[in-house]
Each structure stands twice: as structure tokens, then as C-alpha cells.
Amino acid sequence: MPTVDIIDAQNQKVGQIELSPAVFGAEVKPYLLHEVVQWQLAGRRKGTASTKTRVEVAGGGKKPWRQKGTGRARSGSRRSPLWRGGGIIFGPKPRDYGYTLPRKVKKAALRSALSDKLGEGKLMVLRGFDLTQIKTKAFVEVLGRLQASDALVVTAGVDDVLERSSRNVPRVKVLRAQGLNVYDILKHDRLVLLEEAVAGIEEALS
Description:
Number of strands: 6
Number of helices: 7
Largest sheet: 6 strands, mixed
CATH topology of the largest domain: Ribosomal Protein L4, Chain: A
CATH superfamily of the largest domain: Ribosomal protein L4/L1
Strand order of the largest sheet: 2-1-3-6-4-5
Radius of gyration: 27 Å
Number of domains: 2
CATH architecture of the largest domain: 3-Layer(aba) Sandwich
Mean pLDDT: 95
Helix content: 25-40%
CATH class of the largest domain: Alpha Beta
């Protein structure tokens, strides 16, 4: 069973916690991580690119020239895709790039990502930030002591002080345990779990 030190905001060891081997000791499967990251990024695409077909472009009411006798190719409309300013053939239209992925796959990928961070020694369990007010400077000082300038901080629930204190800090994101995802775990170098968030993560992924 994986055991991790619990540290405080001063980066001092204050205890130990046993992590669930099913969640934090799972086999790391890179293909699962890739599949889930692709799924997340596809769902974030806006899909608002749009072009006009020959039905939608302006003009084209009159036949440009008579059918025969001019020596030129026959043409029926200035809106033809063959003409400059005409419609676009098979151009992009607004669409949803998202698709469904089995819940088991998403959970397995999360377990792989968490296990990978633990295996690399980049996962830490923190007993509170000790922030009494919204203060970005104090938040950055704690991260400096933890040597976690590029980190994903996971809270058990709503923490308005912590979330607003971190808002303007680059390469740092505060995320509630309910929204924990593979992309954000892999995007940041360090994973900082608040002590009270661990139980919720294990319950959701066991």
C-alpha cells in the first residue's frame, strides 16, 4: 500500500497517509492517457468555423453568357465553386467535435495518471494552505516553499479564498476533486492534493 508524507504549508512533515493501491498504485497505461486527453481536447473545440456554399454566396441570378457559340466553357452562375468569389465545396460548417467515451476508460485513465505522478515522486499531500484571506502573494510563497511553481492543486470542495488567490498565478491551477481530470494532471509538473480531498478521490475511483 503506497504511503506518502503529509506536509504543511511550511514544507514540514506532519504525518503520513496510506493511499489506496487500486487508485494510486495502478498500472500506468500510456495509450489510455492518450485516448482520454484526445477526448477532452475534442470536447473543448468550439467548432465554429464556417464557409458559404454556392447557395449562400451573393449574386449569380443571371447566366454569365449564352450556352453556345462563345468558345468558352458553359457556365450557369457566378456562384459556381469554380469561380473566384463563388461557393466553397465541402468547406467546414459549425459542428460538435465531442464524442462519448466509456466511464470505465475515463476512470482507468485517471488512476493511471495519479499512479504515474506518485511513481515519479511528483505527488504531495498537503495539510492546508493556511490562508486566512485572499492574498496572491501568500499563496505564491507557500508554493515556493513546496517547490511547486508549476502545480495542480486539488481541493475537497469549494475554497473561495484559495481559488481567488491563485487566479492570477501562471502555471498554477486550483481544481475541486469533482473536476479532477487527466489533461490537467499531465499538463502540470506537480500534483498537490489537500489532505481532505484524498478520501473523495479514492471513493470516486475505487
